[in-house]
Structure formats: C-alpha cells, structure tokens
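Entry 12.
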Amino acid sequence: MLGITKSHSRPKTGNGNPCSEAQSKTLKYCPEFPDRFGSIQGARRFCRRSFQYYNHEHYHSGIGLHTPFMVHAGATHAIQDKRAQTIEALRAANPWRFTHRPVFPGLSEAAWINEPDGLETVPAVQHGSDLREAA
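Predicted 3D structure (tokens):
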C-alpha cells in the first residue's frame, strides 16, 4: 500500500546497519553494561556516557590510535607529528632503551564500514616519518 518493503536483515550481515550493529556490540561488551536497565532514562544516561567516552576518550587502533573526534576535527596529522617528535626525543636521550625505531600506526585518508563500489582504498600515510627515518 505505501510501497514499504519488509526488511529481512540478519545479524552480522554486511548489508544491514553496520554502524548500529558495531555500536551495539561495543556497548554490550562494556564491563559496566547492566543486565537490565531500571528505566528508559537510565538507559539514555548510560548511552550518553558511553558515546562520550567512545568518541572523545577511547583511542581506536583502526584509526591510528586516535579518537573519532580527533579524526573528525582533522587533528590526526598534527598529533602524529607531535608523537613522533616526543618519541624521537626520548629515543635520543635514552638510546639504550630502544632496540629499534618505533613505528606508529598509519593514517588512512578515508575510513569506511562498507566501501562504496568503484572506490580505491587510499593507502595509509605515515606522518612524522622523517623523524623516525633520520639517522
């Protein structure tokens, strides 16, 4: 009647809602996730705190050990360079503590949950590499 098609999506399928599914899994595996919420307000408070932590405090390995907010704000390149300078200064001051030059996770120019067809993935970019590669 209204042209609405019933969804038959299943968990863990790539054509469902991957953002929602990934966030749900992250919440459920959180040590503070309760067996049961006492009220809708309690559930909302928990989710607000969790989203704040996830987006502004938790460093994600998939985005170069940055927070989603750092990526969104465009601060990752400056942070990578600062990290490289700090590590290089520590390495220069304490060479016996380093058996090799540290390598930072690369930064991608784009991140996708489901990459659109026809796009080529941009390779990771190492920032601050001039400091790490300097003799």
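Annotation: The two ends are 71 Å apart (CA to CA). DSSP finds five helices and no strands in the chain.
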